[in-house]
Amino acid sequence: MNRTKGDEEEYWNSSKFKAFTFDDEDDELSQLKESKRAVNSLRDFVDDDDDDDDLERVSWSGEPVGSISWSIKETAGNSGSTHEGREQLKSRNSFSSYAQLPKPTSTYSLSSFFRGRTRPGSFQSLSDALSDTPAKSYAPELGRPKGEYRDYSNDWSPSDTVRRLRKGKVCSLERFRSLQDKLQLLEEAVSMHDGNVITAVLIFLKRTLCKEILFRELEVRQVALRHLIHFLKEIGDQKLLLDLFRYLDRTEELALSHYREHLNIQDPEKRKEFLKTCIGLPFSAEDSAHIQDHYTLLERQIIIEGTFSSPINLKKTFKIPDKQYVLTALAARAKLRAWHDVDALFTTKNWLGYTKKRAPIGFHRVVEILHKNSAPVQILQEYVNLVEDVDTKLNLATKFKCHDVVIDTYRDLKDRQQLLAYRSKVDKGSAEEEKIDALLSSPQIRWKN
Amino acid sequence: MAFPHRPDAPELPDFSMLKRLARDQLIYLLEQLPGKKDLFIEADLMSPLDRIANVSILKQHEVDKLYKVENKPALSSNEQLCFLVRPRIKNMRYIANLVNADKLAGRTRKYKVIFSPQKFYACEMVLEEEGIYGDVSCDEWAFSLLPLDVDLLSMELPEFFRDYFLEGDQRWINTVAQALHLLSTLYGPFPNSYGIGRCAKMSYELWRKLEEEEDGETKGRRPEIGHTFLLDRDTDFVTALCSQVVYEGLVDDTFRIKCGSVDFGPEVTSSDKSLKVLLNAEDKVFSEIRNEHFSNVFGFLSQKARNLQAQYDRRRGMDIKQMKNFVSQELKGLKQEHRLLSLHIGACESIMKKKTKQDFQELIKTEHALLEGFSIRESTSYIEEHIDRQVSPIESLRLMCLLSITENGLIPKDYRSLKTQYLQSYGPEHLLTFSNLRRAGLLTEQAPGDTLTAVESKVSKLVTDKAAGKITDAFSSLAKRSNFRAISKKLNLIPRVDGEYDLKVPRDMAYVFSGAYVPLSCRIIEQVLERRSWQGLDEVVRLLNCSEFAFTDMTKEDKASSESLRLILVVFLGGCTFSEISALRFLGREKGYRFIFLTTAVTNSARLMEAMSEVKA
């Protein structure tokens, strides 16, 4: 986009000048005269060129109707060999060659399809669009009814203009020159709710108003403002977008918008450098910390070796909560079947050197995660035993077939009935069955049932 | 088992006409570039295109080769290139690169861009800036209504959701209005309309405007569809965020139904290849289970399998003549049924496997707790653990949003802690996602002074007149609360259950969420249809932040037949889920209505979350 910025500006400035003939301010006599001359000169080239809609087609997106014809005449007359002139001629030619495409004679008549029913709206607008594009010829056309001139020159009200835009028709906006006219046009577009038209008007306003004025007016027109912001995001005009946020004092959006750019940077080193520029931006307090972390993380990833990247060190640097750390580490170690590491994860030493098992996530979760990672029964058993709540412990032990734990628990509960029932669930002749039998016949236990 | 319609249920209009119309329009446009041409199609348009045309139709109209629009240089050597695209800036840049490369090489070709469903001025601006305006010709293919099923029309515009509900861009409102206008020229007029939501109101107004401008050709005709209901997705995010448990919804959540068809992988087809299956009313097996709660589906399928076996078995003991009859008349049908049956059984198995693995039961339990508003602490730590275990970035986000909306925002301490852990689990760039979710009102933090509810409601009651509109606006943007709990109470969304909720014999729409919750969107529709107005729903409307955006429009001279008055078009702006469709189909069966669904796209929780995610492309 940027490459053409300068040229474009120069072009538009000059074309604005040339389009003075469109000016319809008539508060002063001289201006009135000028407008009259303008209308007359307009008629000249209109007669020259039979189709108004075609001209508008070239121009809806900004090219003033007059200026194109004018500049073509100019270039043809004297400076036909300048670069600009050639470009314009070329595009005009190719455009007209498009317009001269033979009108299709489709055998698929849609209207035949709807005979007896009404014509569908969307087709209607399609055919409308087509009939708006007749073959163009350069021969002057005579005898055109006067009324038609009025139709496209400078008499379209904001609502007519917006209606035409809504129908997807090309339509010059150049006649809306005073700020008041521009804003009226914008408000008309907003009142019709069609975002496409709102954006079309905004494109025009963006080109014909300096940004301070544009921003000032949009600040009190939230719907239009949202459209401009989205438009700028989509076309990637980051500079203007940031200017806009700055003007609106939306500092957080400004910061986020800048930060978003890092997503497009592939090279890790450049990415890191870019993130460094984000650190001082006006994020919310919490986001500032996240951005700082993001930067530090990239730094670490680049110098991956060394003690910097030890899990404990990372945990400290990024203030990872115990729970999150344990869950991540547990899953990672379990996948590698590094049971010893798993053990270490939950072992804490107190100041006397006694060891104790502690899990911030609760041992019942530890068991489930280990089971998911297909830990052997011996390992599972160890952690099932650490579950404090007896019911949970029994449930887990039964679910994961940790027979010893189940048997021991029933023994501790002195629940003879349950133990008897469990006997049927273990394999015949197994060590577990023997263990149960031994317990059931033990005289030392005072069963509660 | 399956829902038979009541004998007095009205007939659905024939929407296949929309397909023919779209196809003919496309042909018409292709014919405008006479001669051989290569066609470049945008990926997102391929499936919709598949549903209305095929390669041989394109070939008949001199399309030579087909290319996908993607970020690669095109190798086409054709003299004429045609691009079939959505109106997106990146597509314009792609085309511009191609045309400018040709120019540089001194090559002249003809280029035509067909925008579907319409062109945007911003796109033409890019063409102009890139210096190729005039080198390419532009056209519009107003293909905005794809009948995915006998009662389901999709605009296939998933981006509608982000464009409108996140960015506030109203670019698709005209498309919606045009689509409604097309429907009314074909099936209209539509005598009674209701709506809720800002977008619904705007779309309706623009639609009316179009009808006025094209001076109602529908005048004098008898209406076929008695009621229209427009609804914004943001009036009910909760329903869209829930895990789906009716079969069609579950298939969508698990395998992603795309444009009415699904790719069943080898794990479903129990062969080594994938199979693309069209899921609609024509699939006799599917149509019987699509609206069923998943727990019923297995039983139904096995019953069906037994019946099938019995029919096959009949051939034993047949004489030659009977056998001949059997083979020529029944066997094909039986084989077809057999194929479908084994596919859906395979799909069920695969769903079961996946769901067991991800602790679906516990997930559902948490969702229900959130919907009913108990054990919030437990649910919060469940979500926390979900994040810490890095189960799935989209799922974690979904649960956080569900917590936020049902609780009117997270308490600041939880918000910070969950966000931090999320960023640490899934990547710091997601802070952009959080910013998006906050803007869309999906995941918010309770403001410190959030106990001002009473004052706030007074203020919003005071400033309802237009003059004070700005204040209301500012106010609502600051504190647009979901008020889910209060709405749920008002509308009885959580059914009181004494004993088991019998999912086999559903008693209300809550069955689509295992009897735990009546979808809010569907309840609103039910209530308004019952009253034929918003009367008595003022409080609900206010709680939905829609005081200015709930409307009713009834025509005075009512020529609508009683049959047409039971035919209802529901328009979901921002997407609807299969669960909602199933719930309304159920309501229709109960009340003798039939619903026609028009949605900007079929959606589900994952799609909503993905639309809000901001990560590397």
TrEMBL record, chain A:
Residues 178-281 form the Vps16 C-terminal domain. Residues 69-82, 91-100 have a biased composition (Polar residues). Residues 143-153 have a biased composition (Basic and acidic residues). Its main location: cytoplasm. Keywords: Cytoplasmic vesicle, Endosome. It holds the Pfam family Vps16_C. The keyword Lipoprotein does not apply. GO terms for cellular component: early endosome; late endosome. It is found in: Cytoplasmic vesicle; Early endosome; Late endosome. Transmembrane segments: none annotated. Residues 69-100, 124-153 are annotated as: Disordered. It comes from the Eukaryota. This is Spermatogenesis-defective protein 39 homolog. It comes from Daubentonia madagascariensis. The lineage of its organism: Eukaryota, Metazoa, Chordata, Craniata, Vertebrata.
Automatic annotation (TrEMBL), chain B:
It is a peripheral membrane protein. InterPro entries: Sec-1-like_dom1, Sec-1-like_dom3a, Sec1-like, Sec1-like_dom2, Sec1-like_sf, VPS33_dom3b. Transmembrane segments: none annotated. Its main location: cytoplasm. Pfam families: Sec1. It is found in: Cytoplasmic vesicle, Clathrin-coated vesicle; Early endosome; Late endosome membrane; Lysosome membrane. One of its GO terms (cellular component) is recycling endosome. Gene3D superfamilies: 1.25.40.850, 3.40.50.1910, 3.40.50.2060, Syntaxin Binding Protein 1, Chain A, domain 2 (3.90.830.10). One of its GO terms (biological process) is protein transport. This is Vacuolar protein sorting-associated protein 33B. It comes from Daubentonia madagascariensis (Aye-aye).
